[in-house]
Amino acid sequence: MAGWKQLDIGVIGGGIGGLSVALALRRSGHLVTIYERADFAGEVGASVSCAANGTRWLYEWGVDVSKGDPVLLKQLINRDWKTGEPVSVYDLKDYESKWGYAYFMFHRQYMHAMLMECAVGKEGEGRAARLLVNHACESVDSETGTITFKNGVKAIHDLVIGADGIGSVVRKAIDIHPVKKPADSSCLHANVMTEDAVRLGLVDYSQHDALEYWGGQEGKWDKIVLSPCNGGKLLSYYCFFPREMGDYINQSWGGQDRPVEELLAPYPNLDAQVKAHLAIGIEVQPWRLWVHEPYPYLTKGKVCLLGDAGHPMMPHQSQGACMAIEDAGALGVLFNKQYFNGDIEESLAVYNSVRLPRATRVQAAAARAAYNINERIGFSDNKHTATYKVENEKAKLTIEEMNAYDMFMDIEEQLAAARNVPFTRNFIKGMPVGLDLPSGVIQASL
Asked: What is the pLDDT, as a whole number, of residue 220?
């Protein structure tokens, strides 16, 4: 008789996405091995956003969020490029009471360590995941679940998850070949220590507990994004400008720091306060930006993709990490003791049908927000703003759509269809019937 069974699962990639899915599947009772290509599983970069649709899964898995030393965001602020005066503000003061979970900003390394402790530590439900470093994936056989590594090792798993990022080897193994182009904008990242800014008498942006943006209102590529992390001790700046003013498409994070003069060069007319912050920036690094066309599927045989491996997106919705976390959440649910009946093919088919449409929609919205900040979740609700204009009012992405979504209901509906049984809950594709979205009210089918 078909029923739940414990699986031996291989996860390629030990970043935030890989650790999240290892943790989710551990909690669902499976044996998980994480393979990391480097000699240490870690993250590069500084800040990472975790809105309620991501945070809910951290609590679902029993993560002690305080260990990530997050900033609890209270506002989204878009400022005038030259004066720094607020142009559009979205207040998050009732965010947690409305959606049940907070909007956090983490330092990537702290978030990674927080997830690592839960995934591979002895405490908590399920058997601790194994982490093997220096295991760079060379190829995957999607039919047999066999992974071949560059160090000569081979491993066979019931299920293989490609969480190996934008340059995914696993993606190629399931015959997906990206159609992509360089973005029209370039990005340099810099960190500013709050204590250094305060010592110089500059504005203490950490006190705002906000994601802050300069520019982006006029269809131009110039935009500064400030995200506080490490409890406000670190200010993480993402600085966008037209690619013709500096092309970093062939450079990657982790090389020699770029000179601060290079960071300041594109911004002669920038608000003096934020420009003074950038002038004391450290660890100036390029971030390559590519625009990917949506992939046709996320699964093949015994293999599935997760996070940037399956749906790489521009950073302008601050949803990249949340989409990876949601992917992990979906796999944890699909393979738990309530829903998994031993049929891996069925579960992966539902994973594909649940995750691909939602991630693709966020991916498209992130591309639009690259040149129009009014498309950004939160600001997309601020229709009273004098400069407000979006490409298609009915197609815009909102906080309501992101946070009212119930993945359990989406999975139940898709499983019911696959098993030819009725689904009677008051949801359609995870959205509650009666929810009023820009595209219209979610209607029950007749």
From this structure: 77
Reported as a single tens digit per residue, the pLDDT across 355-377 is 999 999 999 999 999 999 999 99
Could you give the CA distance from residue 76 to residue 87 in angstroms, rounded to a whole number?
Answer: 11
Pairing of the two strands 31-35 and 8-12: parallel
Report the chain's C-alpha Rg in angstroms. Answer: 22
Cα atoms in the Cβ-side hemisphere of radius 13 Å centred on 104: 26
90 backbone dihedrals φ, ψ, rounded to 5°: -115, 120
Which tokens hold the place of 93?
């003061």
Task: Identify residue 54 by its one-letter amino acid code.
Answer: G
Q: How far apart are CA 413 and CA 416, in angstroms?
A: 5
Fold of 8-71+101-177+295-375+393-418: FAD/NAD(P)-binding domain (3.50.50)
Q: What is the mean pLDDT of residues 152-160?
A: 98
The answer on pLDDT for 125 being more than 70 is: yes
Q: Is there a contact between 77 and 86 (Cβ–Cβ < 8 Å)?
A: yes
What's the token pair of residue 129? 């995941």
Closest CA to 149 of 161, 140, 137, 164: 137
Q: What would the mean pLDDT of 107-125 be, rounded to a whole number?
A: 95
Task: Give the global pTM.
Answer: 0.96
Contact 427, 441 (CB under 8 A): no
Residue 338 CA to its chain's centroid (Å): 27
Q: How far is CA 230 from the centre of its chain?
A: 18
How is the chain split among helix, strand and coil, in percent rounded to 5?
35, 25, 45
Name the average pLDDT for the chain.
95
Q: Is the pLDDT of residue 90 over 50?
A: yes
